[in-house]
Amino acid sequence: MVSVESTSRTILASFQGYRLKWLKTDFPAGLAIAAVGLPSAIAYPAIAGLPPETGLYASIAPLLAYAVFGPSRQLIVGPDAATITVTAAVLAGITTLGDADRPAVAAMLALIVGGLYLGGRALGFAVFSTFLSRPILVGFFAGISLSIIIGQLKRVTGAPVTSDGLVAPFVDLVRKADQIHWPTLAMALAMFAILQISRLVRLPIPGPVIVVVLAIILSALLDMEGYGIATVGDIPPGIPALALPSTGGASAAQLLLGAFGIFFVSFAAGVITARSFGQRGGYPVDTAREMTGFAAANIAAGLFSAFPITASDSRTAINASVGGRSQLAAVVAAAALLMTILYLRPALSILPIPALGAILISAALSLIDISALREIWRISRIEFAFAMIALVAPITLGVLNGVLIAIGATFTYLLRKMMYPRDALLGRVPGREGFYKLHRRADARAVPGLAIVLIQGDLLFFNVTHVQGRFRAITEAAAPGTRWLVLDAGAISQIDSTAAAVLAEVRDDLASRGIAFGLAELNADVRDLLERSGFLGDIGPDMIFDDLEDALRAFEQADRREESREQEKEEGASRG
Protein backbone atom coordinates (compact mmCIF):
# COMPACT_ATOMS: atom_id res chain seq x y z
CA MET A 1 0.00 0.00 0.00
CA VAL A 2 1.34 3.46 -0.94
CA SER A 3 1.78 5.73 2.06
CA VAL A 4 0.43 9.29 2.26
CA GLU A 5 3.99 10.57 2.62
CA SER A 6 5.09 8.69 -0.54
CA THR A 7 2.09 10.03 -2.49
CA SER A 8 2.76 13.59 -1.34
CA ARG A 9 6.29 13.34 -2.68
CA THR A 10 4.83 12.58 -6.12
CA ILE A 11 1.77 14.84 -6.21
CA LEU A 12 2.26 18.61 -5.90
CA ALA A 13 5.96 18.05 -5.17
CA SER A 14 6.88 21.43 -6.67
CA PHE A 15 4.65 23.25 -4.17
CA GLN A 16 6.18 21.72 -1.04
CA GLY A 17 7.56 24.42 1.23
CA TYR A 18 5.80 27.17 -0.73
CA ARG A 19 6.20 30.69 0.64
CA LEU A 20 3.69 33.49 0.17
CA LYS A 21 6.41 35.94 -0.80
CA TRP A 22 6.95 33.90 -3.99
CA LEU A 23 3.57 35.10 -5.29
CA LYS A 24 5.06 38.42 -6.40
CA THR A 25 7.40 36.61 -8.81
CA ASP A 26 5.26 33.59 -9.78
CA PHE A 27 2.41 35.72 -11.18
CA PRO A 28 4.54 37.89 -13.50
CA ALA A 29 6.53 34.80 -14.49
CA GLY A 30 3.30 33.05 -15.49
CA LEU A 31 2.20 36.00 -17.63
CA ALA A 32 5.63 36.09 -19.28
CA ILE A 33 5.44 32.35 -20.01
CA ALA A 34 2.04 32.82 -21.64
CA ALA A 35 3.30 35.76 -23.71
CA VAL A 36 6.31 33.82 -25.00
CA GLY A 37 4.39 30.58 -25.42
CA LEU A 38 1.48 32.03 -27.39
CA PRO A 39 3.35 32.54 -30.71
CA SER A 40 4.89 29.06 -30.69
CA ALA A 41 1.59 27.53 -29.54
CA ILE A 42 -0.08 28.90 -32.67
CA ALA A 43 2.88 28.29 -35.00
CA TYR A 44 4.05 24.78 -34.11
CA PRO A 45 0.87 22.88 -35.08
CA ALA A 46 1.32 23.99 -38.69
CA ILE A 47 4.46 21.81 -38.88
CA ALA A 48 2.24 18.74 -38.45
CA GLY A 49 -0.68 20.07 -40.48
CA LEU A 50 -2.76 20.56 -37.34
CA PRO A 51 -5.13 23.48 -36.64
CA PRO A 52 -3.61 26.30 -34.54
CA GLU A 53 -5.98 25.82 -31.62
CA THR A 54 -4.37 22.43 -30.86
CA GLY A 55 -1.19 24.28 -29.93
CA LEU A 56 -3.16 26.36 -27.45
CA TYR A 57 -4.72 23.22 -25.98
CA ALA A 58 -1.20 21.74 -25.70
CA SER A 59 -0.17 24.80 -23.70
CA ILE A 60 -2.94 24.65 -21.10
CA ALA A 61 -3.90 21.16 -19.83
CA PRO A 62 -0.32 19.74 -19.88
CA LEU A 63 0.94 22.66 -17.77
CA LEU A 64 -1.66 21.92 -15.12
CA ALA A 65 -0.93 18.18 -15.20
CA TYR A 66 2.81 18.71 -14.81
CA ALA A 67 2.19 21.19 -12.00
CA VAL A 68 0.42 18.37 -10.11
CA PHE A 69 2.72 15.43 -10.91
CA GLY A 70 6.03 16.99 -12.01
CA PRO A 71 8.95 17.28 -9.56
CA SER A 72 10.60 20.46 -10.86
CA ARG A 73 9.71 23.89 -9.55
CA GLN A 74 10.81 25.76 -12.67
CA LEU A 75 10.44 23.39 -15.64
CA ILE A 76 7.65 24.36 -18.06
CA VAL A 77 6.18 21.89 -20.54
CA GLY A 78 4.58 22.66 -23.88
CA PRO A 79 4.93 22.35 -27.65
CA ASP A 80 8.48 21.61 -28.75
CA ALA A 81 10.02 21.93 -32.23
CA ALA A 82 11.67 18.50 -32.29
CA THR A 83 8.67 16.65 -30.85
CA ILE A 84 6.13 18.25 -33.19
CA THR A 85 8.43 17.58 -36.17
CA VAL A 86 8.53 13.86 -35.35
CA THR A 87 4.76 13.95 -34.83
CA ALA A 88 4.44 15.47 -38.30
CA ALA A 89 6.53 12.63 -39.75
CA VAL A 90 4.35 10.02 -38.02
CA LEU A 91 1.14 11.60 -39.31
CA ALA A 92 2.59 11.86 -42.82
CA GLY A 93 3.53 8.18 -42.71
CA ILE A 94 -0.09 7.13 -42.11
CA THR A 95 -1.19 7.35 -45.73
CA THR A 96 -4.81 6.46 -45.00
CA LEU A 97 -5.20 9.49 -42.74
CA GLY A 98 -7.49 12.31 -43.85
CA ASP A 99 -7.00 15.94 -42.81
CA ALA A 100 -10.06 15.78 -40.56
CA ASP A 101 -8.59 12.83 -38.65
CA ARG A 102 -5.14 14.32 -38.01
CA PRO A 103 -6.03 16.14 -34.74
CA ALA A 104 -7.61 13.00 -33.24
CA VAL A 105 -4.65 10.80 -34.20
CA ALA A 106 -2.20 13.40 -32.84
CA ALA A 107 -4.12 13.35 -29.54
CA MET A 108 -4.05 9.54 -29.50
CA LEU A 109 -0.28 9.62 -30.06
CA ALA A 110 0.06 11.96 -27.07
CA LEU A 111 -1.95 9.52 -24.96
CA ILE A 112 0.26 6.58 -26.03
CA VAL A 113 3.44 8.61 -25.42
CA GLY A 114 2.18 9.30 -21.89
CA GLY A 115 1.69 5.56 -21.42
CA LEU A 116 5.21 4.89 -22.73
CA TYR A 117 6.58 7.31 -20.14
CA LEU A 118 4.80 5.41 -17.36
CA GLY A 119 5.90 2.05 -18.71
CA GLY A 120 9.42 3.34 -19.26
CA ARG A 121 9.69 4.51 -15.68
CA ALA A 122 8.40 1.17 -14.37
CA LEU A 123 11.01 -0.67 -16.47
CA GLY A 124 13.84 1.62 -15.35
CA PHE A 125 14.16 3.35 -18.74
CA ALA A 126 15.37 6.50 -16.97
CA VAL A 127 18.87 5.01 -16.92
CA PHE A 128 18.98 5.30 -20.73
CA SER A 129 19.17 9.07 -20.40
CA THR A 130 22.87 8.52 -19.72
CA PHE A 131 23.23 7.02 -23.22
CA LEU A 132 22.12 10.24 -24.95
CA SER A 133 25.54 11.45 -26.00
CA ARG A 134 26.00 15.17 -26.50
CA PRO A 135 27.40 14.96 -30.07
CA ILE A 136 24.46 12.84 -31.26
CA LEU A 137 21.89 15.17 -29.71
CA VAL A 138 23.60 18.37 -30.89
CA GLY A 139 23.66 17.00 -34.43
CA PHE A 140 20.14 15.60 -34.25
CA PHE A 141 18.57 18.84 -33.04
CA ALA A 142 20.48 20.78 -35.68
CA GLY A 143 19.02 18.41 -38.29
CA ILE A 144 15.53 18.86 -36.84
CA SER A 145 16.04 22.63 -37.01
CA LEU A 146 17.03 22.51 -40.68
CA SER A 147 14.01 20.31 -41.34
CA ILE A 148 11.75 22.94 -39.75
CA ILE A 149 13.34 25.73 -41.78
CA ILE A 150 12.87 23.79 -45.02
CA GLY A 151 9.27 23.09 -44.06
CA GLN A 152 8.55 26.83 -43.80
CA LEU A 153 9.70 27.71 -47.34
CA LYS A 154 6.19 27.39 -48.72
CA ARG A 155 4.65 29.42 -45.87
CA VAL A 156 7.09 32.34 -46.11
CA THR A 157 7.24 32.53 -49.93
CA GLY A 158 3.81 31.37 -51.04
CA ALA A 159 5.51 29.22 -53.71
CA PRO A 160 4.38 25.56 -54.04
CA VAL A 161 7.59 23.93 -52.78
CA THR A 162 6.97 20.17 -52.70
CA SER A 163 10.44 18.56 -52.79
CA ASP A 164 11.98 16.74 -49.83
CA GLY A 165 15.55 16.54 -48.57
CA LEU A 166 18.23 19.09 -47.77
CA VAL A 167 19.01 20.68 -51.15
CA ALA A 168 16.07 19.72 -53.37
CA PRO A 169 13.54 22.12 -51.74
CA PHE A 170 15.81 25.09 -52.38
CA VAL A 171 16.33 23.98 -55.99
CA ASP A 172 12.56 23.61 -56.28
CA LEU A 173 12.10 27.13 -54.92
CA VAL A 174 14.55 28.58 -57.46
CA ARG A 175 12.74 26.81 -60.30
CA LYS A 176 9.41 28.20 -59.08
CA ALA A 177 10.72 31.70 -58.41
CA ASP A 178 8.07 33.14 -60.75
CA GLN A 179 5.38 31.75 -58.37
CA ILE A 180 6.73 33.49 -55.26
CA HIS A 181 4.05 35.64 -53.64
CA TRP A 182 6.05 38.77 -52.96
CA PRO A 183 3.74 40.35 -50.33
CA THR A 184 3.98 37.08 -48.35
CA LEU A 185 7.76 37.04 -48.63
CA ALA A 186 8.00 40.73 -47.68
CA MET A 187 5.90 40.14 -44.58
CA ALA A 188 8.02 37.13 -43.57
CA LEU A 189 11.31 38.97 -44.10
CA ALA A 190 10.11 42.00 -42.15
CA MET A 191 8.97 39.89 -39.21
CA PHE A 192 12.19 37.86 -39.28
CA ALA A 193 14.24 41.08 -39.22
CA ILE A 194 12.27 42.30 -36.20
CA LEU A 195 12.95 39.01 -34.41
CA GLN A 196 16.70 39.30 -35.01
CA ILE A 197 16.82 42.96 -34.00
CA SER A 198 14.92 42.26 -30.78
CA ARG A 199 17.36 39.45 -30.00
CA LEU A 200 20.42 41.64 -30.62
CA VAL A 201 19.06 44.69 -28.79
CA ARG A 202 17.67 42.51 -25.98
CA LEU A 203 14.36 44.32 -25.65
CA PRO A 204 12.37 43.69 -22.45
CA ILE A 205 9.48 42.31 -24.54
CA PRO A 206 10.25 39.00 -26.27
CA GLY A 207 10.61 39.21 -30.05
CA PRO A 208 7.86 36.66 -30.87
CA VAL A 209 5.37 38.65 -28.78
CA ILE A 210 6.29 41.84 -30.66
CA VAL A 211 5.91 40.06 -34.00
CA VAL A 212 2.50 38.58 -33.15
CA VAL A 213 1.07 41.89 -31.90
CA LEU A 214 2.53 43.90 -34.79
CA ALA A 215 1.41 41.36 -37.42
CA ILE A 216 -2.16 41.36 -36.04
CA ILE A 217 -2.25 45.18 -36.07
CA LEU A 218 -0.92 45.34 -39.65
CA SER A 219 -3.38 42.65 -40.74
CA ALA A 220 -6.28 44.60 -39.26
CA LEU A 221 -5.18 47.95 -40.73
CA LEU A 222 -4.00 46.83 -44.16
CA ASP A 223 -6.32 43.88 -44.85
CA MET A 224 -3.55 41.33 -45.41
CA GLU A 225 -6.00 38.77 -46.76
CA GLY A 226 -6.92 41.26 -49.47
CA TYR A 227 -3.28 41.16 -50.62
CA GLY A 228 -3.40 37.36 -50.82
CA ILE A 229 -1.50 36.76 -47.57
CA ALA A 230 -2.79 33.70 -45.71
CA THR A 231 -3.97 34.10 -42.12
CA VAL A 232 -4.64 31.69 -39.24
CA GLY A 233 -8.41 31.68 -39.73
CA ASP A 234 -11.19 30.91 -37.31
CA ILE A 235 -10.33 29.37 -33.94
CA PRO A 236 -13.08 27.35 -32.22
CA PRO A 237 -14.47 28.99 -29.06
CA GLY A 238 -13.75 27.51 -25.65
CA ILE A 239 -11.75 24.36 -24.96
CA PRO A 240 -12.54 20.78 -25.92
CA ALA A 241 -14.26 18.48 -23.47
CA LEU A 242 -12.30 15.73 -21.75
CA ALA A 243 -12.54 12.70 -24.06
CA LEU A 244 -10.64 9.70 -25.39
CA PRO A 245 -9.39 10.44 -28.93
CA SER A 246 -10.13 8.15 -31.86
CA THR A 247 -7.53 6.30 -33.92
CA GLY A 248 -8.70 7.89 -37.17
CA GLY A 249 -8.29 4.59 -39.01
CA ALA A 250 -4.62 4.23 -38.09
CA SER A 251 -3.48 0.72 -37.15
CA ALA A 252 -2.17 -0.18 -33.71
CA ALA A 253 1.27 -0.93 -35.19
CA GLN A 254 1.44 2.48 -36.87
CA LEU A 255 0.45 4.24 -33.67
CA LEU A 256 2.83 2.31 -31.43
CA LEU A 257 5.82 2.63 -33.74
CA GLY A 258 5.17 6.32 -34.27
CA ALA A 259 4.60 6.95 -30.56
CA PHE A 260 7.90 5.26 -29.73
CA GLY A 261 9.78 7.63 -32.07
CA ILE A 262 7.99 10.62 -30.55
CA PHE A 263 8.67 9.30 -27.06
CA PHE A 264 12.40 9.02 -27.73
CA VAL A 265 12.71 12.60 -28.99
CA SER A 266 10.37 13.95 -26.30
CA PHE A 267 12.36 12.11 -23.64
CA ALA A 268 15.71 13.33 -25.01
CA ALA A 269 14.59 16.96 -25.31
CA GLY A 270 12.89 16.90 -21.91
CA VAL A 271 15.84 15.39 -20.06
CA ILE A 272 18.31 17.79 -21.69
CA THR A 273 16.16 20.79 -20.76
CA ALA A 274 15.61 19.53 -17.21
CA ARG A 275 19.32 18.83 -16.68
CA SER A 276 20.53 22.11 -18.16
CA PHE A 277 18.22 24.22 -16.00
CA GLY A 278 18.85 22.01 -12.99
CA GLN A 279 22.56 22.68 -13.40
CA ARG A 280 21.96 26.41 -13.70
CA GLY A 281 19.66 26.45 -10.67
CA GLY A 282 21.90 24.22 -8.60
CA TYR A 283 19.32 21.51 -7.91
CA PRO A 284 19.42 17.78 -8.76
CA VAL A 285 17.21 16.28 -11.48
CA ASP A 286 15.50 12.94 -10.87
CA THR A 287 14.93 11.55 -14.37
CA ALA A 288 12.51 8.88 -13.16
CA ARG A 289 10.26 11.43 -11.45
CA GLU A 290 10.49 13.73 -14.47
CA MET A 291 9.16 10.83 -16.55
CA THR A 292 6.08 10.77 -14.31
CA GLY A 293 5.56 14.49 -14.86
CA PHE A 294 6.01 14.15 -18.65
CA ALA A 295 3.61 11.18 -18.64
CA ALA A 296 0.90 13.22 -16.90
CA ALA A 297 1.45 16.16 -19.26
CA ASN A 298 1.16 14.00 -22.40
CA ILE A 299 -1.89 12.13 -21.11
CA ALA A 300 -3.55 15.48 -20.40
CA ALA A 301 -2.62 16.63 -23.92
CA GLY A 302 -4.21 13.50 -25.39
CA LEU A 303 -7.42 13.84 -23.38
CA PHE A 304 -7.83 17.50 -24.35
CA SER A 305 -7.34 17.17 -28.14
CA ALA A 306 -3.73 18.36 -28.26
CA PHE A 307 -0.53 16.59 -29.41
CA PRO A 308 2.63 15.16 -27.81
CA ILE A 309 4.69 17.67 -25.82
CA THR A 310 7.79 17.81 -23.65
CA ALA A 311 9.79 20.34 -21.64
CA SER A 312 10.05 23.73 -23.37
CA ASP A 313 13.47 25.35 -23.09
CA SER A 314 12.24 28.83 -24.13
CA ARG A 315 9.35 28.89 -21.65
CA THR A 316 11.51 27.46 -18.88
CA ALA A 317 14.17 30.09 -19.60
CA ILE A 318 11.59 32.88 -19.33
CA ASN A 319 10.29 31.42 -16.08
CA ALA A 320 13.79 31.30 -14.62
CA SER A 321 14.76 34.78 -15.84
CA VAL A 322 11.62 36.46 -14.45
CA GLY A 323 12.05 34.63 -11.15
CA GLY A 324 9.34 31.97 -11.08
CA ARG A 325 9.77 29.91 -7.93
CA SER A 326 7.14 27.18 -8.33
CA GLN A 327 4.66 25.58 -10.71
CA LEU A 328 2.17 28.28 -9.76
CA ALA A 329 3.78 30.22 -12.62
CA ALA A 330 2.69 27.41 -14.98
CA VAL A 331 -0.85 27.54 -13.56
CA VAL A 332 -0.98 31.31 -14.15
CA ALA A 333 0.33 30.82 -17.71
CA ALA A 334 -2.35 28.21 -18.42
CA ALA A 335 -5.06 30.53 -17.10
CA ALA A 336 -3.75 33.42 -19.22
CA LEU A 337 -3.78 31.28 -22.37
CA LEU A 338 -7.29 30.08 -21.56
CA MET A 339 -8.40 33.71 -21.34
CA THR A 340 -6.77 34.28 -24.72
CA ILE A 341 -8.83 31.50 -26.31
CA LEU A 342 -12.03 32.81 -24.75
CA TYR A 343 -11.63 36.51 -25.47
CA LEU A 344 -8.94 37.12 -28.13
CA ARG A 345 -9.97 34.64 -30.85
CA PRO A 346 -10.94 37.34 -33.38
CA ALA A 347 -7.47 38.92 -33.14
CA LEU A 348 -5.69 35.59 -33.48
CA SER A 349 -7.77 34.61 -36.52
CA ILE A 350 -6.29 37.44 -38.64
CA LEU A 351 -2.68 36.67 -37.67
CA PRO A 352 -0.68 36.31 -40.96
CA ILE A 353 0.84 32.86 -41.59
CA PRO A 354 4.16 34.35 -42.88
CA ALA A 355 4.71 35.89 -39.42
CA LEU A 356 4.34 32.44 -37.84
CA GLY A 357 6.76 31.04 -40.42
CA ALA A 358 9.29 33.72 -39.48
CA ILE A 359 8.89 32.81 -35.79
CA LEU A 360 9.46 29.13 -36.52
CA ILE A 361 12.55 29.80 -38.66
CA SER A 362 14.00 32.08 -36.00
CA ALA A 363 13.32 29.49 -33.28
CA ALA A 364 14.84 26.73 -35.42
CA LEU A 365 18.00 28.74 -36.04
CA SER A 366 18.42 29.21 -32.29
CA LEU A 367 18.45 25.40 -31.88
CA ILE A 368 21.49 25.01 -34.16
CA ASP A 369 24.40 25.17 -31.76
CA ILE A 370 27.32 26.09 -34.03
CA SER A 371 29.68 26.65 -31.11
CA ALA A 372 28.94 23.15 -29.76
CA LEU A 373 29.57 21.61 -33.19
CA ARG A 374 32.85 23.53 -33.45
CA GLU A 375 33.88 22.34 -30.00
CA ILE A 376 33.05 18.72 -30.86
CA TRP A 377 35.14 19.03 -34.05
CA ARG A 378 38.05 20.35 -32.00
CA ILE A 379 37.81 17.62 -29.37
CA SER A 380 36.99 14.50 -31.40
CA ARG A 381 36.71 14.04 -35.16
CA ILE A 382 34.94 10.70 -34.68
CA GLU A 383 32.25 12.19 -32.46
CA PHE A 384 31.84 15.05 -34.94
CA ALA A 385 31.22 12.47 -37.68
CA PHE A 386 28.44 10.93 -35.56
CA ALA A 387 27.00 14.42 -35.01
CA MET A 388 26.92 14.95 -38.78
CA ILE A 389 25.19 11.60 -39.30
CA ALA A 390 22.56 12.61 -36.74
CA LEU A 391 22.22 16.00 -38.49
CA VAL A 392 21.76 14.73 -42.03
CA ALA A 393 19.62 11.65 -41.31
CA PRO A 394 16.39 13.45 -40.26
CA ILE A 395 16.47 15.60 -43.41
CA THR A 396 17.47 13.06 -46.03
CA LEU A 397 15.82 9.91 -44.67
CA GLY A 398 12.91 11.38 -42.72
CA VAL A 399 12.61 12.38 -39.09
CA LEU A 400 11.47 8.96 -37.86
CA ASN A 401 14.34 7.23 -39.62
CA GLY A 402 16.57 9.95 -38.23
CA VAL A 403 15.43 9.04 -34.72
CA LEU A 404 16.32 5.40 -35.28
CA ILE A 405 19.67 6.32 -36.84
CA ALA A 406 20.45 8.63 -33.91
CA ILE A 407 19.72 5.78 -31.48
CA GLY A 408 21.79 3.39 -33.57
CA ALA A 409 24.64 5.87 -33.85
CA THR A 410 24.69 6.35 -30.08
CA PHE A 411 24.98 2.64 -29.40
CA THR A 412 27.39 2.11 -32.29
CA TYR A 413 29.70 4.70 -30.82
CA LEU A 414 29.42 3.16 -27.34
CA LEU A 415 30.00 -0.35 -28.71
CA ARG A 416 33.00 0.79 -30.73
CA LYS A 417 34.58 2.32 -27.63
CA MET A 418 34.04 -0.96 -25.78
CA MET A 419 35.24 -3.15 -28.65
CA TYR A 420 38.73 -1.72 -28.58
CA PRO A 421 39.77 -1.24 -24.94
CA ARG A 422 43.09 0.51 -24.57
CA ASP A 423 46.10 -1.21 -23.12
CA ALA A 424 49.45 -0.07 -21.82
CA LEU A 425 52.72 -1.53 -20.56
CA LEU A 426 53.69 -0.42 -17.07
CA GLY A 427 57.07 0.11 -15.48
CA ARG A 428 58.97 1.91 -12.74
CA VAL A 429 60.32 5.43 -12.54
CA PRO A 430 63.66 5.48 -10.69
CA GLY A 431 63.31 7.02 -7.25
CA ARG A 432 59.48 6.99 -7.27
CA GLU A 433 56.83 4.66 -5.94
CA GLY A 434 54.13 3.05 -8.06
CA PHE A 435 53.90 2.01 -11.71
CA TYR A 436 53.71 4.25 -14.75
CA LYS A 437 52.73 3.85 -18.39
CA LEU A 438 55.85 3.41 -20.47
CA HIS A 439 54.46 5.39 -23.42
CA ARG A 440 53.51 8.32 -21.18
CA ARG A 441 56.69 8.72 -19.13
CA ALA A 442 59.99 8.91 -20.93
CA ASP A 443 61.82 8.12 -17.67
CA ALA A 444 59.71 5.01 -16.96
CA ARG A 445 61.53 1.69 -17.35
CA ALA A 446 60.15 -1.84 -17.70
CA VAL A 447 61.13 -4.27 -14.94
CA PRO A 448 63.65 -6.67 -16.52
CA GLY A 449 62.04 -10.06 -17.07
CA LEU A 450 58.56 -8.82 -16.04
CA ALA A 451 55.92 -7.47 -18.46
CA ILE A 452 52.99 -5.70 -16.78
CA VAL A 453 49.97 -5.10 -19.04
CA LEU A 454 47.09 -2.78 -18.11
CA ILE A 455 43.74 -3.35 -19.88
CA GLN A 456 41.49 -0.29 -19.64
CA GLY A 457 38.03 -1.75 -20.18
CA ASP A 458 35.82 -4.75 -19.66
CA LEU A 459 36.52 -8.12 -21.28
CA LEU A 460 33.41 -9.34 -23.07
CA PHE A 461 32.62 -11.62 -26.00
CA PHE A 462 32.71 -8.83 -28.62
CA ASN A 463 36.15 -7.44 -27.73
CA VAL A 464 38.21 -10.43 -26.54
CA THR A 465 39.49 -11.23 -30.03
CA HIS A 466 41.03 -7.77 -30.18
CA VAL A 467 42.46 -8.15 -26.66
CA GLN A 468 43.90 -11.58 -27.50
CA GLY A 469 45.60 -10.04 -30.54
CA ARG A 470 47.09 -7.32 -28.35
CA PHE A 471 48.46 -9.93 -25.92
CA ARG A 472 50.04 -11.77 -28.83
CA ALA A 473 51.61 -8.57 -30.18
CA ILE A 474 52.93 -7.62 -26.73
CA THR A 475 54.37 -11.10 -26.22
CA GLU A 476 56.13 -11.09 -29.58
CA ALA A 477 57.60 -7.66 -28.88
CA ALA A 478 58.64 -8.50 -25.32
CA ALA A 479 62.29 -8.12 -24.40
CA PRO A 480 64.42 -11.27 -24.45
CA GLY A 481 64.45 -12.97 -21.06
CA THR A 482 60.85 -12.03 -20.18
CA ARG A 483 59.68 -14.70 -17.74
CA TRP A 484 56.43 -13.31 -16.34
CA LEU A 485 53.48 -11.41 -17.81
CA VAL A 486 51.10 -9.94 -15.24
CA LEU A 487 47.72 -8.49 -16.21
CA ASP A 488 46.72 -5.43 -14.17
CA ALA A 489 42.95 -6.10 -13.97
CA GLY A 490 42.08 -3.12 -11.77
CA ALA A 491 40.22 -1.37 -14.63
CA ILE A 492 38.25 -4.51 -15.61
CA SER A 493 34.84 -4.43 -13.91
CA GLN A 494 33.12 -7.07 -16.04
CA ILE A 495 34.13 -10.31 -17.71
CA ASP A 496 32.16 -13.14 -19.32
CA SER A 497 32.70 -16.83 -20.02
CA THR A 498 34.01 -16.14 -23.54
CA ALA A 499 36.68 -13.83 -22.14
CA ALA A 500 37.61 -16.44 -19.50
CA ALA A 501 38.15 -19.01 -22.26
CA VAL A 502 40.28 -16.55 -24.25
CA LEU A 503 42.40 -15.78 -21.17
CA ALA A 504 43.02 -19.53 -20.89
CA GLU A 505 44.26 -19.49 -24.49
CA VAL A 506 46.52 -16.52 -23.70
CA ARG A 507 47.92 -18.38 -20.71
CA ASP A 508 48.63 -21.48 -22.85
CA ASP A 509 50.29 -19.38 -25.55
CA LEU A 510 52.52 -17.70 -22.96
CA ALA A 511 53.37 -21.06 -21.37
CA SER A 512 54.53 -22.36 -24.75
CA ARG A 513 56.97 -19.45 -24.84
CA GLY A 514 58.22 -20.11 -21.31
CA ILE A 515 56.34 -17.14 -19.80
CA ALA A 516 54.19 -17.42 -16.67
CA PHE A 517 50.86 -15.59 -16.61
CA GLY A 518 49.61 -13.75 -13.52
CA LEU A 519 46.71 -11.51 -12.46
CA ALA A 520 46.69 -8.52 -10.12
CA GLU A 521 44.00 -6.29 -8.59
CA LEU A 522 41.01 -8.46 -9.51
CA ASN A 523 37.58 -6.99 -8.78
CA ALA A 524 35.24 -9.21 -6.77
CA ASP A 525 32.82 -9.98 -9.64
CA VAL A 526 35.68 -10.73 -12.03
CA ARG A 527 37.38 -12.97 -9.46
CA ASP A 528 34.15 -14.90 -8.85
CA LEU A 529 33.58 -15.62 -12.55
CA LEU A 530 37.19 -16.64 -13.19
CA GLU A 531 37.05 -18.91 -10.16
CA ARG A 532 33.84 -20.57 -11.38
CA SER A 533 35.36 -21.05 -14.83
CA GLY A 534 38.34 -22.87 -13.28
CA PHE A 535 40.83 -20.35 -14.68
CA LEU A 536 42.14 -19.21 -11.29
CA GLY A 537 42.66 -22.80 -10.23
CA ASP A 538 44.66 -23.47 -13.38
CA ILE A 539 47.12 -20.61 -12.92
CA GLY A 540 47.39 -21.28 -9.17
CA PRO A 541 47.24 -18.99 -6.13
CA ASP A 542 50.94 -18.12 -6.45
CA MET A 543 50.17 -16.12 -9.64
CA ILE A 544 47.18 -14.15 -8.23
CA PHE A 545 48.14 -10.91 -6.48
CA ASP A 546 46.30 -8.25 -4.52
CA ASP A 547 48.22 -5.46 -6.24
CA LEU A 548 51.20 -4.84 -8.52
CA GLU A 549 53.58 -4.32 -5.61
CA ASP A 550 52.80 -7.88 -4.43
CA ALA A 551 53.36 -9.13 -7.97
CA LEU A 552 56.74 -7.39 -8.16
CA ARG A 553 57.85 -8.80 -4.79
CA ALA A 554 56.78 -12.31 -5.81
CA PHE A 555 58.66 -11.95 -9.11
CA GLU A 556 61.83 -10.78 -7.34
CA GLN A 557 61.60 -13.63 -4.84
CA ALA A 558 61.15 -16.12 -7.69
CA ASP A 559 64.21 -14.58 -9.34
CA ARG A 560 66.24 -14.99 -6.17
CA ARG A 561 65.13 -18.59 -5.80
CA GLU A 562 66.09 -19.26 -9.40
CA GLU A 563 69.51 -17.65 -8.85
CA SER A 564 70.02 -19.80 -5.73
CA ARG A 565 69.17 -22.93 -7.68
CA GLU A 566 71.56 -21.93 -10.46
CA GLN A 567 74.33 -21.29 -7.92
CA GLU A 568 73.73 -24.68 -6.25
CA LYS A 569 73.94 -26.37 -9.64
CA GLU A 570 77.18 -24.58 -10.46
CA GLU A 571 78.68 -25.45 -7.03
CA GLY A 572 77.60 -29.08 -7.42
CA ALA A 573 79.13 -29.24 -10.87
CA SER A 574 82.42 -27.72 -9.61
CA ARG A 575 82.61 -30.21 -6.71
CA GLY A 576 81.96 -33.05 -9.13
**Residue-averaged pLDDT, rounded?**
87
Shape: elongated
Q: Got a strand count?
A: 8
Low-confidence stretches: 1-8
Query: Helix coverage percent of residues?
Result: 55-70%
Protein name: SulP family inorganic anion transporter
Organism: Paracoccus benzoatiresistens
Pfam families: STAS (PF01740), Sulfate_transp (PF00916)
Membrane topology: Multi-pass membrane protein
What can you see in these coordinates?
The chain has 576 residues and is mainly alpha-helical. The chain has 2 domains: 21-415, no CATH class; 422-575, STAS domain (Transcription Regulator spoIIAA). It has helices at residues 4-10, 23-43, 53-57, 61-69, 81-93, 102-122, 134-151, 153-157, 168-175, 182-201, 207-222, 252-281, 287-303, 313-322, 328-343, 345-349, 353-367, 370-379, 381-396, 399-419, 464-477, 497-512, 524-532, 535-539, 548-575; strands spanning 77-78, 310-311, 422-427, 436-437, 450-456, 484-488, 516-520, 544-545. Strands 4-3-5-6-7-8 form a 6-stranded mixed beta sheet. Strands 1-2 form a two-stranded antiparallel sheet. The longest helix has 30 residues, at 252-281. Residues 1-8 have low confidence and may be disordered. Residues 556-576 are annotated as: Disordered.
